[in-house]
Amino acid sequence: MGDQPLVRWDWITGNLVDPIGTRLLEHLQLSLSPILIGLLLAVVLGVACARWRWLYPPVFTGVNVLYAVPSIALFFLLLPYTGFGPWTAIIPLSLYTLAILVPNVVDGLGQVPDHVRQAAVAMGFSPLRRLVQVEFPIALPVVIAGLRVAAVATISMVSVASLVGLGGLGQLILTDGFRRQFTTPIVVGITLSVLLAFLVDGVLVLAQRLLTPWTRDHGAAAGRGSARRGEGART
Amino acid sequence: MITFAGVTKRYPDGTTAVDDLHIEIPTGRITVFVGPSGCGKTTSLRMINRMVEPTSGSIAIDGRDVRAQDPAVLRRSIGYVIQQAGLFPHRTVVDNIATVPLLLGWKKAGARARARELMELVGLDPEQAGRYPHQLSGGQQQRVGVARALAADPPVLLMDEPFSAVDPVVRTGLQDELLRLQSELRKTIVFVTHDIEEAVRLGDSIAVFRPGGVLAQADAPERLLAEPVDAFVEGFIGYDRGVRRLSFFPARLLDLHTDAIVGEGAPIARAREVARSSGEPWLLAVDGERRPRGWVAARDLERGAVGSVDAVGDLDLVGYGHVFTVATDSLRAALDAAVLSPAGRAVGVDEEGRVVGVVAQTDLGSAIWAVGTDDAPTTRPVGRNG
Question: Which PROSITE patterns does the UniProt entry name for this protein (chain A) (predicted)?
Fold first, then answer.
């Protein structure tokens, strides 16, 4: 890349809104949508698996097999159907989060002590109300722990989506940087991607503190230890 | 009244948890289901609020079949206390207690106000309202559990081994508290335990279950101790049922002796005279307010072994052990005091701790023999050792 400096600040100031700002927003959208969709699906699957235990082994195997499919292959597989739109990235990334989130939802619900569940039944909670008002809140620390892993993994995977031209900070790295032998966009893209991961993780930590005040002085350990896999950053 | 009519619970694998149970549980009383594990006592309890559905037979509360109502609605009208309290870890004490009122659609402020009332009723510090269950001791958690069960003022309270996970001292305190609450609230309580002592202490009536879910005997506790129907019940009650039955007879039935009591300031010569005239081998020395000081053996006075001592109080007095309160304790407490006393005599005191009189083991024996054939005058054990 010649003797150009690593970072050319004038390029950054000149391109702050576009492409840098645009790519960042794309990246945020492409990562948050799969996280939210994945969470929704994982809750439905997790509740079903907790309710009907026989369902869990096949579902667990299923989401793990999905996780093993390389993301780039999945993007190309979807291209003919969804084109160069955001769904080509969102669908595979949502499926990947399931491998992390489904076990966490099942584990989280499994942490509800039997005597607590029985007391809820005996107090006269209807099954749905019991799920929403008793079991979900108790499962929350474990679910959020999984969500943190899934969020960071997804944010890093969105960059791969740029390989097939789906936008995001990867686009900055690939199109503006790598192809033009120009390091500044590459550095900007990587830095923003990492910062975004930190930011989203921070928001989740904060959310957990606000949503689960009862864990502050004792239960936090229960949430921390249970994220199934932290090694999930894909490329 | 809760009526079990021919209730049977059989599981698909063929085990029978409850076998043709007929029993009537009176309104406003504590009925204890007791028995070894696997006897169907908990299953029977849980059929009342439909956490378990019977295979056959029916259960009615005040004549109304429990299956006539939606289970969730039914359960809101029945308090339930579970072994480890079953408190919601994510809710504060006050919100745990407010659970059922909120389920019944009360406004949040009203439910919390009610919860605070109940905290006071069960003896919880108001400062604990905002705490989470894991910040409380086991005994306090159990109090919250009881308060939560009572929050919507249900006429029926089901208690499933509620005190078995706390240590014995705390358990006794909780039992006392339950009896105190019950004397105010008069709920229909069904209480499950495997501990016959607890059953005798709390129950107005006791239903003993045998393995296989068969009701062996349902009776008032005193009747159960006096006349177990068979070897199983007798074995389950334990070998000292005779002594325990004495809990149902008040100590005021005893004839107490007052002729062998001397003031601690009395001269030795006077004590010698008292010993001679009463014929008692032991004298009880009391202070100016008639509180017990200790025993003096009559023969020590006679033998002149007293040396240069002038007054009774200056002698080496033998410890009087523990006393019983005549007005409120049971024969069992008096017997226990006599057995432990080095003089073989129990000291009876009034509520202020002043000596009323003493009773010797031999006199206790005749009193016990006399009541042995009677029905007990109380249905509830007398006093603190009951």
Answer: ABC_TM1
Contact B86 A118 (CB under 8 A): yes
Is residue A234 within 8 Å of A157, Cβ to Cβ?
Answer: yes
Q: Is residue A8 part of a domain?
A: no
Into which CATH architecture does domain B2-248 fall?
Answer: 3-Layer(aba) Sandwich (3.40)
Residue B293, CA distances (Å) to A71, B286, B320 in order:
90, 5, 7
Under an 8 A CB cutoff, do A124 and B74 touch?
A: yes
Per-residue pLDDT tens digits of chain A, which is 235 residues long: 456 777 777 777 777 777 788 888 888 888 899 999 999 999 999 999 988 989 999 999 998 898 888 888 888 888 888 878 788 888 888 999 999 999 999 999 999 999 999 999 999 999 999 999 999 999 999 999 999 999 999 988 888 877 777 777 777 777 777 777 777 778 888 888 899 899 999 999 999 999 988 887 654 444 333 444 433 444 4
> Where in the sequence is the domain holding A36, given as residue range(s)?
18-224
Taken in order A119, A122, A124, A125, the sign of the CA dihedral is positive
Report if residue A113 sits inside a domain: yes
Identity of the residue in A115, A217, A219 whose CB atom sits nearest the CB atom of B86: A115
Neighbours of B238 (CB within 10 A): 12
Residue A132 lies in a domain: yes
From edge to edge, which strands make up the β-sheet containing B292-297? Answer: B261-263, B282-286, B292-297
d(CA A73, CA A27): 20
Q: Answer yes or no: do B89 and A123 touch at CB < 8 A.
A: no
- Looking at CA atoms only, how far is residue B227 from chain A in angstroms? 36
Q: Establish if A6 belongs to a structural domain.
A: no
Rounded distance between C-alpha atoms, residue B283 and residue B271, angstroms? 8
Query: Which chain A residues are closer than 8 Å to B75 by Cβ?
Result: 121-124
Class of B251-372 per CATH?
A: alpha beta
Interchain contact, B80 vs A119, CB within 8 Å: yes
CATH classification of the domain holding A182:
1.10.3720.10
Domain ranges of chain B: 2-248, 251-372
Contact status of A137 with chain B (Cβ, < 8 Å): yes
**A128 and B CB contact within 8 Å:** no
Provide the number of structural domains found in chain A: 1
CA distance B9 to chain A (A): 19
Identify each DSSP E strand in chain B by its residue range: 2-10, 16-25, 30-34, 56-61, 64-65, 78-81, 156-160, 188-193, 205-210, 214-219, 261-263, 282-286, 292-297, 324-325, 345-349, 355-360
- Average pLDDT across each block of 10 residues of chain B; the chain has 386 residues. List them in order: 94 92 95 92 95 94 93 94 90 95 94 94 91 91 93 94 87 91 94 92 94 92 88 86 83 86 86 85 89 87 68 83 88 88 89 90 81 66 60
